[in-house]
Amino acid sequence: MASFKICVRVKRQDGLYPVYIRITHNRQVGYIKTDKCVGKEGLKKGEVVDPHVLAYCSKEILRYNEALNAVNLSSLTVSEIVTFLKKMDEEISFSEFARFYVRRMSIEWKMERNAKNYQLALRSLELFMDRDNILCPQLSGKVIQDWITDLEKHYHRAKEMYPTCVKIMFNAILDEYNDYEKGVIRIKNNPFRKIRIPKADTPDKRALDIDTLRRFFFGELPPSKMVAPLPELSRDVAEMVFCLAGINTADLYLMKKECLRDGVLCYHRQKTKKFRRDGAYLEIRVPERLLPLFEKYKSDDEYLFCFSKRHQDLDCFNINVNRGLKRYCTHNGLPPICIYNFRHSWATIARNNCGASTEEVGFAMNHSSAHRITEGYIKKDYSPISILNENVLGIVFG
Question: What's the total number of domains in the chain?
Answer without folding.
Answer: 3
